[in-house]
Design a protein that fits this description.
Length: 297
Amino acid sequence: MRMTKERNKRNRKPGSGGLWSVGWTRFRERRLAVAGAVIVLFLYLVAIFAPVLTPYNPVTYGDIPAARYMGPSFQHPFGTDKFGRDVMTRMFYGSRVSLLIGFFAVTLSIVLGSLVGALSGYAGGIVDAVLMRVVDALMAIPRLFLLLTCIALFSQSILLIIILLGATGWMSAARLVRGQVLAIKQKDYIVAAEALGAGGKRIIFKHLIPNTLTVIVVSATLRIGGIILAEAALSFLGLGVPPPTPSWGMMVFEGRDVMLDAWWVSTFPGLAIVITVIGFNLLGDGLRDAFDPIHFT
């Protein structure tokens, strides 16, 4: 009987269950996707339990003459920086900044993109044409130029970084959602809802956006890695999170002049950025392959 159940499970077609159920089954079958999920989970656990994992303070200076640029050791596994601060501690606390900015900036961009894309795709006509031309115009402006200009006009803060990264990254999400809505709005249940007198607002929020949720989740996961890289680049240029708050990009910047003598100052934060981006990309690719309706046959 057990063998029969296992055989039926293997022979079950993707379309025989719900999209979420089948998607999670397919996701668990992809080792790289699971590895990405483990990496992301580990990063969030480190960020949450940073005060428990290390006894040092990330911003308090150590004994500078004696503790500056100490190499990796049992006491300081990742060494110390020019102020005698423990690099591993600053990396753990820096993960909070990167993950916080990545999550909220992507959430903001996905919300804006979903609303604009759903409205454009459902309304069609002149509304669609105007909104898409606005999206094209914004996408033609270099993102880094917009970020540098806005940061130069306002004081640096984590909130400002989140708003800027989110407000300059919603255009591609809008195009993606619009494409999905254009396909979904021709379905029978949308036509039936319109025939029953449902308003455009209800159709968009009750039918169209919920049915693009899988695509939105996949898109959001894939974008977090890019957001983290953008924040690291801004911090490297000295325009990101203001010191002394630890940030991976700032840590890489601080160690650029001592790469030969104190390589650990930049190397370990740089590796953290690489591993984080790879983890989110693996997770996003796995979710795309598992949940994208195009892959269901």
